[in-house]
């Protein structure tokens, strides 16, 4: 049995937006930051080889507006993980996270992601090497097990090893991953959720930071889990219905400020878009992250249509966003209803 080390978890946020490939890029994070000042935002997963040998500014560059921010690494070689973590820390990230949850074939062939649930000691070695290399938080995101593993044994073993090795937090996607027979997309939906398994882990390790991920759709659904767990990590719900993040600072961080409305978030994001347009970034690369912002509100269809059709045109600027925003004002919404 491992003798677990108690971590200082006071700096770990209670709400996070999960790392999502092709979604949580720097423009998405800058947009989400307009809705919440405190939520922890994650990069897309980036491999250690890419960080060490690739275009680092392109892969892991970020702006100060995105803080607090964590970089998720994919890899399994402790020496390379430590080297990549040092690069990430030097870039100014607040946290570096190890991916032990992605089930894709490409990730498995690289011996990282969810398949590492079968090698907890290797994950622990990576944590230890990274903790020796950096002063920022080192965390792990995992599943409750893979394939025919017993989730009781698999998750307990992973947690014990990574916390013994110094991990500052463990985020648990409360589903198994099936490495054979299910696609990555199916692995996000088909294996049943088991929130109780994560609650049992926290009950066993009350001094360690345990955060919950997987299937969380609304703040009302998720908030009660904070009575027993330390953090909530939203994925697709935060992306497709980002307006829920406007309540996060008040509900989870005690901020004595009004919730951020979708309209205010867009207006605040415009300064960022203006700056990025001047640097040659295409408008559609930024607006694609806002399509679901007015979901369920009058004018939402017009908002999506204008951004989808007009943001891709050559030379498109923030006037497209202003036009789309007008469509979800009371006058614009009335117009859509009349169509």
Can you lay out the helices and strands and say which pair or pack?
Blueprint: E1 15-17, H1 26-35, E2 40-42, E3 46-47, H2 48-53, H3 56-60, E4 69-74, H4 78-91, E5 95-100, H5 105-109, H6 120-133, E6 137-146, H7 151-164, E7 169-177, H8 184-187, H9 195-204, E8 210-213, H10 219-222, E9 231-234, H11 236-240, H12 248-253, H13 262-278, H14 283-287, H15 300-310, H16 318-327, H17 330-338
Parallel strand pairs: 1-2, 1-9, 2-4, 3-4, 4-5, 5-6, 6-7, 7-8, 8-9
Task: Describe the structure in your own words.
This protein has 339 residues and is α/β, with parallel strands linked by helices. The protein has 17 helices and nine strands. The chain has helices at residues 26-35, 48-53, 56-60, 78-91, 105-109, 120-133, 151-164, 184-187, 195-204, 219-222, 236-240, 248-253, 262-278, 283-287, 300-310, 318-327, 330-338; strands at 15-17, 40-42, 46-47, 69-74, 95-100, 137-146, 169-177, 210-213, 231-234. Helix 4 (78-91) packs across helix 6, helix 6 (120-133) runs parallel beside helix 7 and helix 15 runs antiparallel to helix 16 (318-327). Mean pLDDT is 92; it is low at 1-11.
